[in-house]
Amino acid sequence: MTETPSKILIAQAGFVVLWSSGFIGSKYGLVHVDPYTLLFLRYALVAIVLMAICVVLYGNKGISWSLLGEVSLIGTLAHALHVSTLWAAFTLGATAGSAALIGGLQPIITGVASRRALGQKIEKRQWIGLLIGFASVLFISFNGMVIGGNATAYLMLLTSVGCLTVACLHQQKLDIEATNSQLPLTLNLALQCTASSIVLSIPALLVGDSMIVWHVELVAVLLWLSFAVSLGGAGMFWFLLKYRPATQVASLTYLTVPATMIMAYFAFGESLTSLDLIGLVIAAIGVKLAHA
Questions:
Q1: Burial level of 265, CB count in 10 A (0-12/13-18/19+)?
Q2: Measured distance CA(64)–CA(241) in Å, rounded
Q3: What angle do the packed helices 185-206 and 65-75 form, to 10 degrees?
Q4: Is residue 226 within 8 Å of residue 45, measured between CB atoms?
Q5: How many CB atoms are closer than 10 A to CB 206?
Q6: How far apart are CA 165 and CA 167, in angstroms?
């Protein structure tokens, strides 16, 4: 499968920027609502809108129960479980530094697993790129970030990484086999977000705070998280998986750590040092090699 280099580059840059902005938007939103309710509202909103669009565009399009199940599973893993277990880890005491370190393992785990699951060969220079990317996470994490959390929190972080990795590999397996080649990306995302919102309704009801402080800022955050991050960022992620090996796509997450720090500097006035910018350069070098 091929696509024009310009579209790939736009999707890569768009994914990094939009995905990174999700952490900034969540920080604004958590002032008004608990994390699980925020996640449920985020995915429910995009699911409702996308489903309405899909009814108009693909009203007569059939989809097998097996494919519906697979797409729903991928969505649940990549969205609902990946993000909710991350928030569970924070609730249990994990720090941003710990999340960055464990999250930095995801491209490496994907590289190892993709060889076994998909038969994808990774060149030596690409492994070097992944290691340099992980080194950038180490560099940034130990430059002022607090590393901490108990064993349960770390288990939640590893679960979050595992869910995204399995979803990423399974989606690419479907693409390679052309199982869902006729399933439009919009419909794919609609089904994923619908499944995620159903799953997320459980923690929202059981452990969420029913009191929502509605405010124009919360509405703006919901719109951004739903359509810019869950639709735009995730859409670009799945788009890239159709045209690039899973490990290359996963390596882009190395850029999200420094990108988030830069956004936090402008949004909240958080610390941003020259060493953090050096970390960004190291991450960029690693990603470049991983895509060589």
A1: middle
A2: 22
A3: 60
A4: yes
A5: 8
A6: 5
pLDDT digits (tens), the chain, 292 positions: 566 889 999 999 999 999 999 989 998 998 899 999 999 999 999 999 999 999 998 876 778 888 899 999 999 999 999 999 999 999 888 888 888 889 999 999 999 999 888 989 999 999 999 999 999 999 988 776 667 778 999 999 999 999 999 999 999 998 887 755 568 899 999 999 999 999 999 999 998 876 788 899 999 999 999 999 999 999 999 999 999 999 999 999 999 999 998 999 999 888 888 888 999 999 999 999 999 7
Instruction: Reduce the secondary structure of 159-184 to three states and give it as a string.
Output: HHHHHHHHHHHHHHHHHHHCCCCCCC
